[in-house]
Amino acid sequence: MTHRVNRETLSAGLASDSWRAASDLLVAAIPLALTVLLLISGFTPILRTLSDPYTTWTGFSYQALLNKVMNYALAVQENAASPTALARLREQTLSSLDNTLEYTDLRQVERIGPARLSRAAELFRAADREPSVALKQARFMLAIQEVQRLNEQAHERIHDIQDLHSRQLERLRLVLLLAAALSGLLSAALIWRSLRLWRAERQRLDGQRELLSLASHELRRPLQSLLLATDLLRVAQNAEDRLRYLGVVESSAGLLASRANLEHLETMYGEVHLDWQPVDLVPLLREFEGPRTEVQVQVSSLTVAADAARLRQIIENLHENALRYSPGTVLVGLQLSDGRPEVWVRDNGPGIDPADVERLFLPRERSADTQVQPSAPGQGLGLGLTIARRLAEAHGADLTLTKAAGGGTLAVLRLQALTFDPQLQADPAPGRPKRLR
Amino acid sequence: MLGIPALLATLTVVLAAVGAALWSARPSAPAPFVYLHGQLSAPERGTDEVVFRMSGGHSFTLAQLRALPAVQYRATQPQLKRSTMYTGVPLRDLSKLAGLAGRSLRVEADDQFGATIAPQDYQDYPVMLAYLADGRPMTATQKGPLQVVFPNEQYPQRFSNNGSQWVWFASGLNAAP
């Protein structure tokens, strides 16, 4: 049953994948389609105009008519041709004078000036009919002049058409430029967009990687405690020891459980969301007592508004750094200063150069003059201070590292004033903030 | 993944459709000439006027031209804008007689006009020297008695823009220089 369902969802996934790929291709082809559309719509009418045979004419038929009329007048004057030859010449000339269809744009040409083809035909016939030789000459002259005028009008028409063509070519140039600009712009926009998206994706991945390394860093300590406790449990001699080690196993497992919630890495180490509760700092600090750790606390209890688990993580990281980078005893203490509780961790190791301090809070940085080797391979990535600062900032607290008087490093976590009530904040952390008394 | 074969299939179909459209729109191939009649008995020259002269010394009277094998088809005269049934001698045959087959021909007219006809046109297509229009001798008004006629109704794509090659009052045939 499950197998079949899985196959269906798989094929459905593949189908939607191919549909997505196809639609992405269509989107990518939009600039191309727009350019082609623009080119076609702008190009076609211009091309039609330019390739129309009647717009590329030369006015030859008008020139040919002039030649015919002049030849005939000359032949008549010279009187050398036979009557049949003359008759044929007359027929041929009249065939052109009477056929308006052989002249391109005759109407436009006749509109340019006074010359008319019909008048030329009339004058020609009148000249041909004229019996008097002297008058015949004059009449033919008139006919020839009419055709000459018509010819010149035809030439003007050619110039008009050439102007039209150059205007069309200008328009064509504009259309091509627009098409190129449009497609160029669209392509640029799409390329820029995809670059932006790619960079954002890279950044997101880098961010996730960082969160994962922070989370794995914080899982280490509870795991170590757990393994140590189970080893001790195996060789425990009496029930009291066994109970104690079981307690360690339980608390370590609890810490693991809370820190292994990988789905919410963003709220744990990114945009940190705190579970505000009243927390008594004294028992929290007492947890850190150990063979190399001395807890110096004057009061019996001091309650603040905080997220207990996160606060523990801050102090764990500071404590771990102190243990690792110094020999001898580490001091953990609590004091009140200007109404603000301060948790401090002090060691007597090599200390920190003030110039290095800010750099140490960046992920994967360690002090330049660290002499002590990490106690286990793969440890000491330099993330501890990063985590500590982020969680401290989420609490509204200050975390500072300084050279301690008398050598060593002093880390101070300065929490908010005791009167601080997270519920009154403008942007309170979600969870269940409890009102302080 | 599945999208790529589908895309290729679509592309192939589109290209096939475009190819088919272009193929159907191509100009039609020339058909062999259809003759109205073969060589008729050639009449004597006598006193008839020579109407057509070709290089190499050949010349014809109208009657002699009409005795040559003839073609007949309908064409639209570009300057008269009229569809007419023309009868005449194919230029291909005249070029063979003049020994100019395969060369560019220069047809000359009475009014010193001339036009060059390319072998690609007159050898494959029945371009003719027409002497009859609608069965009757061509008048001067019809640009006769002899005119170069192109089969622009049979092959419109090829012969639609060559009005200047329809030689009116044709009188001679030579090799183009």
Briefly say what this structure is.
The complex is a heterodimer of chains A (437) and B (177). Chain A has helices at residues 2-28, 30-51, 60-78, 83-98, 106-112, 117-129, 133-234, 239-259, 265-270, 281-286, 308-324, 357-360, 384-394, and strands at residues 277-280, 293-297, 303-306, 330-337, 340-346, 398-403, 409-414.
Task: Considering the chains and any ligands shown, give keywords for the structure.
heterodimer, A: 437 residues, alpha+beta, f41 fragment of flagellin, N-terminal domain, Heat Shock Protein 90, 2 domains, five-stranded mixed beta sheet, two-stranded antiparallel ribbon, 7 strands, rod-shaped, disordered C terminus, B: 177 residues, Sulfite Oxidase, Chain A, domain 2, six-stranded antiparallel beta sheet, 4 helices, 31% strand
Structure in words:
Chain A is of the alpha+beta class and 437 residues long. Chain A has two domains: 213 residues, f41 fragment of flagellin, N-terminal domain (Up-down Bundle); 151 residues, 2-Layer Sandwich (Heat Shock Protein 90), CATH 3.30.565. Chain A contains 13 helices and seven strands. Chain A starts with a helix and ends in a 23-residue tail after the last strand. The relative contact order of chain A is 0.07. The C terminus of chain A is likely disordered. Chain B is of the alpha+beta class and 177 residues long. Chain B has a single domain, classed as Sulfite Oxidase, Chain A, domain 2 (Alpha-Beta Complex), CATH 3.90.420. In chain B, 22% of the residues lie in helices and 31% in strands. Chain B starts with a helix and ends with a strand.
